[in-house]
Amino acid sequence: MSDDATREAATARYFGIDGETQAALIRALARLPTDVREFAVDECVYVSVGRSARGLCRPASMLASASWLIVLDERLAGHSLETATAHEVGHAWLDHDLGDTSTTHEEVEAEVRALVRKWGFRGLGAEPK
Length: 129
Ligand SMILES: [Zn+2]
Known about the structure:
Elements: H1 3-9, E1 13-14, H2 19-31, H3 34-42, E2 44-49, E3 68-73, H4 78-93, H5 105-118
Parallel strand pairs: 1-2, 2-3
Helix pairs in contact: 1-2, 2-4, 4-5
C-alpha cells in the first residue's frame, strides 16, 4: 500500500478513543481499492467500543455529512479488525438495506464476504461459510 493510500485513510472520521482500533481502521482503509477507499473516507464515519470505551457519547451531528455509521469492536486484534472493517465497509459499498426482504441475510453476507476476499482480505468476515 502506498503512502498516499495511508495518508488518505488517515483522514477517515473516527470518533472512538482506542488507538489500536484507529490504527487497524487506517490499515484496512489503505488496503481498499482507491474508489472504495474514497467512499469509505467520504461517506462513512467510524466509532468503536469494547476495550477502551465501555460506552461513548458523541454529538449526533457527527453523522450529518455521512451516509453510513460503522461500529467496530475494539476487542478484535490486528488482521481480524482489518477484515471486520473491510466487511462493514463492504455492506455500505454494496448499499445493503436492512429493510430489504428480497434477499436473505445469508445471501447478503455471502455477497459481502466474496467482495472482501476480492479486495484481498482473509479470515472471519471474508471466508465463505
Ligand atoms: Zn456482514
